[in-house]
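Shipment paperwork, digital attachment
Item: protein structure file
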Amino acid sequence: MGGEGGTASDVEEDTGVKRNPKLTVLPLIALIFYEVSGGPFGVEDSVSAGGGPLLSLLGFLIFPLVWSIPEALVTAELATSFPENGGYVVWISAAFGPFWGFQEGFWKWFSGVMDNALYPVLFLDYLKHSFPIFNGLAARIPALLGLTFSLTYLNYRGLHIVGFAAVSLAVFSLCPFIVMSILSIPKVRPVQWLVVDFKKVNWRGYFNSMFWNLNYWDKASTLAGEVEDPSRTFPKALLGAVVLVVSSYIIPLLAGTGALRSASSEWSDGYFAEVGMLIGGVWLKWWIQAASAMSNLGLFEAEMSSDAFQLLGMSEIGMLPAIFASRSKYGTPTISILCSATGVIFLSWMSFQEIVEFLNFLYSIGMLLEFAAFIKLRIKKPDLHRPYKVPLQTFGVIMLCLPPSLLLVLVMCLASIKTILVSGAVMLLGFLLYPTVVHAKDKKWARFGTERPAVSSDNILAGHSIMLHQEAEESLIPYSSSSKAEQESELLLEEALKMK
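Attachment content:
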């Protein structure tokens, strides 16, 4: 990291931005954990939707193999090949050009903001059981706004603070389930894990629950420019997060469904608190409720960080005006954070099920594009410098991406007509926004940055980063341009990916 010292110092002297410590393995594991999971809160629906414990337990054993591990492997390879803020936006731009990179960024940012709108609402839903005043709008709306502003301020203060806060919240949120699992051991009857009533299975709810609880492994890639030695840190953090997430689902479900004879219909959001009371007593119920509330804070912080740094990364490569890349004295993207927080406030009126289905649909489209980019870069750029490489050849990576891609298509096919129409409108908005941004850049209605973002990996050469950002600045051209211009853009993308 010694070669970077001068660059960081120069940036600090020129901009007055405080260079905060970068993310290491443990804080990154906690952030990925909260991007994906946050604990077993919300997995209760998988028992009721699956008609009993069997499908729920099988789902959290099989889905990680089919979905989570392939997505984590793809993320590890591409995040270390392009260790820059913006993550998947950079990958898609490198594979398919800036138009599709912009669409990927818009879809993922929109689905991320929708996801984040859930957590302040869920936090107050847990509190209202102990403080009924939050049932009324007169208290609920100010509390919702105050909570959103407070958590947004924590993001403003620095990503390293968010990372260590996530570690503390993860420990607090998981401890009651460790205690509950230990206390349940004498009461567990393994035969109860095999119960299933296929007449009660709600396949749409089941697959949406599984998918929502096991997605977003790629979100932390938007923070790659803020990670210490990403070529080593990312693979380790993703592996640790996969083990932590799957364990945090399977172990409490084994304890709760094995120790109790509760009907599957009783398993709904928040039921783990009742499970804790039946196994350990009222004190354990209160502990789980407190952990549930605090987990929502961790989920909000992790999602807000990724969404904001994604906008910053898009700005740094010329896809958004330079104002989105402006950093506070703490090194955080101020305008990008405020933009994401505003979206959260405006989407907080939607119901839980509506948000889950909408964001799953948009996320599925974005992930199909990521898998396609992963395969295309393997074929077209076999010599691209990959500090971490999935140990499979071309046919192997296609087979790796096939099962999760089929799952994504299945989730989209199960969506309601309303979800398809709303998601289609969001996609259309993205198609219209791109030429609008290009026109604004051509007419100089806004300033677009030309500065190079910090690249923290020792395994990526400075020339690669410079060329990538030069390409992004020059290639924001209308997608309806002549074939000659498209060929020039393609050549620039090819040059940007050359590793010397």
